[in-house]
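> call design_seq(struct)
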């Protein structure tokens, strides 16, 4: 029983978008809070880029959620 990286990464990307929408934030607003370009955040939400733990923690802080909230 192995973990499929692609499935897990896609889940995290979708979860970030869900949490952003729950917080009624645009991609631009969340990107601003994370001090990153809107296009970078768009790629993250679309699952087209690999996230570092640092970036994931930055996004969690901007959304006021824990890392566990994102990966559950």
């Amino acid at each position: 029983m192995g973990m499929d990286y692609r499935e897990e990464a896609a889940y995290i990307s979708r979860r970030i978008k869900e949490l952003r929408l729950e917080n009624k934030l645009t991609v631009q607003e969340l990107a601003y809070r994370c001090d990153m370009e809107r296009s970078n955040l768009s790629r993250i939400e679309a699952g087209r880029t690999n996230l570092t733990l640092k970036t994931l923690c930055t996004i969690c802080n901007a959304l006021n959620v824990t890392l566990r909230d994102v990966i559950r």
